[in-house]
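Researcher: I'd like a structural prediction for the single chain below. Treat it as a standalone chain; there are no partners to consider.
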Amino acid sequence: MQSTIYCLLDSLDENSKQQLHLMQSYLVEQIKQSRNCIIPFESWMDKALYTPNLGYYSSKNKIFSSKHQESMKYPLGDFITAPELTSIFAKTLSIQIAEVLKKTNTNKILEFGAGTGKLSFDLITELDNMGIKVEYEIIEISDHLTFLQKKTLEPFIKQVKWLKNMPYDFNGCVIANELIDAMPVKLFQWDEHNCLLEKYVGINNKEEFTLLNKAADNQLADIVSSRMKPIPGYSSEINLIGETWLTSIIKNITNGVVFIIDYGFPQEELYHPQRYTGTLMCHLHHMAYSDPFIAPGIQDITTHVNFTALAAVALKEKSEILGYTSLARFLLNCNILKIIEQMDMSSTSKQIEILGPIQKLLSENEMGELFKVLAIGINWKENDKLVGFASRDRSEKLITTLKN
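Model: Treating it as a single chain, here is the predicted structure.
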């Protein structure tokens, strides 16, 4: 694997190599300027992903792939999201969004981190076909991605607004698709005495990045201890920034539903004893590896979402868990099979083009089970279940865990 990764690095174009060099130099300088020449991994990850003009999500790297590039040896882009995979994803999701807009008596949608704008475009198109002319708002921290979104959404430019911050007293539907997995996390490890250590990043005499352990502060130790029992040598991560983000979002919604679509687990699965080294992964041209120091600035860095922790935030803020289930079950509940039946599959090539991506969305071995959908209602007055959670809703499992 290591040799394959370095072959990939050798094959990078000059712009990517320059980007990597600049990011590495910047991070080294940040560490040198810090107290004791170490910074928390959370801070290092934040800089690697979001530093203006240098970070992965802030540069002009091609991040997202289309389904047509997957067969390439080193595809353009580093990963493919559900909206980029097929428009049927948005067509199905629009069934659920339309229900929420009708019940909240609004036409407002707010999407965080809209990528290329593909999901926004498809949702506006589908809802328009249903007779719902939406007001679509996007919060995007990347200037480059904002540029791509404006290009994609040019036909609907009068319906779309880009915001810097969450609007106060928002009424409508909020979408966070593959957002929280890319938020910076704290890395931790239990030592042989069952004491919690937090991981920091330093540099050696060759100016290479190294991970260092430091005793966790009381706040972090208390939070982690409340979520799992100590296991000597066990390493994992905790996404406190994601939890703070959700708290802020809920506080600013007057009436509406937040949909979080991402890969992850309930807490007891995320911190299972066999998941001994955590879930942190990096992605570069569809190659996955766990060492974040290989290509900062040109690689994605992600971790799996703790859906129990997000549910706890919602309940603490007096919101309601409206549903939690796998992506496959959510899409099936929203009648994806009926939507597929209406597609033109008159030739073998059309069948392959349509059904190949659908298999990825629904298969337990692909996105179907790994990805989950969590719906949080704020001042939600309806008693009926949302259509996406009509069957096999797992939210009770999250809530029961929190009560124990």
